[in-house]
Write a structure and sequence with these properties.
The chain has helices at about 1-5, 10-35, 40-50, 50-60, 65-85, 90-110, 115-125, 130-150, 155-160, 165-170, 175-195, 200-210, 220-245, 245-275, 285-290. The protein is mainly α. The radius of gyration is 23 Å and the shape is globular.
């Protein structure tokens, strides 16, 4: 037990655990809908879409989280505008803006001569540098996430399975989709400090995939995904402490490993149940019996 508890007696690692856990719960709630709706590409695109704002904020000496939020909101808004007013499909719009924002961010980075350390933090996060003020922001983000999720739950469910029924019931699926995109944007921005722009999808998808292997009800999936995400944070921070690995990638990697382990365990469990199930005795057809 001391091997598990002693590292978190240090102040900076305790803050990292608390902040990372808040991020994990946000991603567990939002990631459930990302998996159900098949929006992984959107989360990846918004994660990369933050790069120009973060890079500009770093160069200009502005709050990095502000730059990330502005850039992510601009990205998600542009996706919606292209889809509504153009003739491009949803994934095509995301793909074009994905490359455009990533290119712009790299151009900004390339014009800064002392950007190596900052670029590493931008891409892979620095959960060990979370401060008390960051924890307050994450707590507010979690409250907003839970509030929006509860408010739009019926609309999200209806739109996920049949938008026409959602429209018939007066649930406004288009507004629900905008709210869901906003939630994904909020989760990506909130996760930036912990895992950076490249690894955020690991926290969005890994815990939700692990939970979906064992659950059927959406609220239960969210709760289990949040727990798996917190476990990934604990494992990642312990790996960083004892093995000297980068904390953000360790957390994201732990989330993916837990998802793979959950899927494998579910598959083995299903096979074991199938082997234990009684097999029906073969029925001898009367005509075959007479023929014999």
């Amino acid at each position: 037990m001391p091997l598990l508890t002693d590292p978190f007696s240090t102040e900076f690692l305790a803050r990292a655990l608390l902040g990372g856990s808040l991020v994990a719960v946000i991603c567990g709630v939002v990631g459930t809908w990302v998996v159900i709706r098949g929006m992984a590409f959107l989360g990846e695109a918004i994660g990369h879409g933050m790069l120009p704002g973060v890079a500009l904020a770093t160069v200009l000496g502005l709050p990095v989280l502000l730059g990330a939020a502005v850039s992510a909101v601009a990205m998600s808004t542009a996706i919606g505008v292209l889809q509504r007013r153009g003739r491009l499909s949803y994934d095509t719009s995301i793909g074009l803006l994905f490359v455009a924002m990533l290119s712009l961010g790299i151009i900004v980075v390339s014009h800064s001569r002392s950007f190596a350390t900052d670029a590493t933090v931008i891409l892979f996060g620095d959960v060990l540098a979370i401060r008390a003020a960051d924890i307050v922001v994450l707590a507010i983000a979690l409250a907003v996430t839970i509030g929006i999720t509860a408010l739009f739950h019926r609309a999200f469910v209806a739109a996920a399975f049949d938008p026409r029924i959602a429209h018939t019931l007066g649930l406004r699926p288009q507004r629900a989709h905008v709210a869901l995109v906003g939630l994904v944007t909020l989760a990506v921005v909130a996760s930036f400090q912990a895992v950076g722009t490249l690894l955020v999808v690991g926290l969005l998808l890994g815990p939700a995939v692990a939970a979906r292997a064992w659950t059927t009800r959406i609220p239960t999936t969210m709760a289990v995904a949040s727990g798996v995400g917190v476990l990934a944070v604990v494992i990642g921070l312990l790996a960083s402490w004892y093995l000297g690995t980068a904390a953000g990638p360790s957390i994201a990697g732990a989330a993916i490993v837990l998802a793979a382990a959950s899927s494998a365990a579910r598959s083995l469990s299903a096979r074991a149940v199938a082997r234990r199930a009684p097999h029906p005795e073969p029925v001898d057809h009367p005509q075959l019996a007479s023929a014999r």
